[in-house]
Amino acid sequence: MASASIDTLDFRGQPAISLATASGARAVVGLFGGQVLSWKPAGGEERLYLSDSAVFDGATAIRGGVPVCFPQFATEGALPRHGFARNRAWAVRTRRTGDDFAMLALGLDADDATRALWPHDFDLELTVLIEDSRLELELEVTNTGTDDFAFTAALHTYLRVREVEESRLEGLYGSEYRDSADGGKLKRDSGDALLIEDETDRIYHAVQRPLLLREYDRSLGINAEGFPDVVVWNPWETRCAALPDMAALDFRRMLCVEAAVVQNPVRLAPQAQWWGRQTLVAL
């Protein structure tokens, strides 16, 4: 049996790191954006959506995988949409392998360019761990400055599905959500499962239970710690057709289920830390 490995590679013209376990699990993490671009559990198929039309120019946000949104989610503040972390080059900090895992940690620090947008000193660390059927992502934020700051954030996870209309997302029953596709109205989920049948753009608040994404022949367990909110997004036909970096019918092959902190921004005192984790388990 081959051993676990971590290697550098070129991915669509950009530097990336490949992770592999002895059991056959695989992942690719791009250094631009600190972004997981691919994940295949052992013996399984690709479970993350990455657009064939995504732009890999080292400046444009990449459509797919798991973009890191920081220090702002979407348009929740005055910064560019989803902040700047997904548009910055991250650095490798730690590589580690064992009998049944491969782990990579990437880091991003404040610099003059980030301070011009957001006048705070910070340290971000994203840890990516793969095991047999599990992908675990942990984002740690440290305030390295002398003043408090507040932020919103998300792991903007694009899941690959066979057919979004035949997928069911369970675990959100009873949760309150802001419906951004309906003018930001506050609503409460009342169904046993969320079915995607139209444009969906929801921020669920204070989600307490693990989620389960069911397809007709496979499932995916989704769990978050530290991230209290869950964002569910699918652009559907009209909005998808208007996206220049996504094929017109690709809304059928993806569903974003994002670990997020949006409703109540995190405030960090100098030298304080916060962390959030999202775990995906192929079933």
TrEMBL record:
GO terms for cellular component: cytoplasm. The keyword Ribonucleoprotein does not apply. The active site is at H156, E258. One of its GO terms (molecular function) is glucose-6-phosphate 1-epimerase activity. One of its GO terms (biological process) is carbohydrate metabolic process. InterPro entries: Aldose_1/G6P_1-epimerase, G6P_1-epimerase, Gal_mutarotase_sf_dom, GH-type_carb-bd. Keywords: Isomerase. The keyword Isomerase applies. Its EC number is 5.1.3.15. It catalyses: alpha-D-glucose 6-phosphate = beta-D-glucose 6-phosphate. It comes from the Bacteria. Belongs to the glucose-6-phosphate 1-epimerase family. PANTHER family: APOSPORY-ASSOCIATED PROTEIN C-RELATED, GLUCOSE-6-PHOSPHATE 1-EPIMERASE. This is Putative glucose-6-phosphate 1-epimerase. It comes from Azoarcus sp. (strain BH72). The lineage of its organism: Bacteria, Pseudomonadati, Pseudomonadota, Betaproteobacteria, Rhodocyclales.
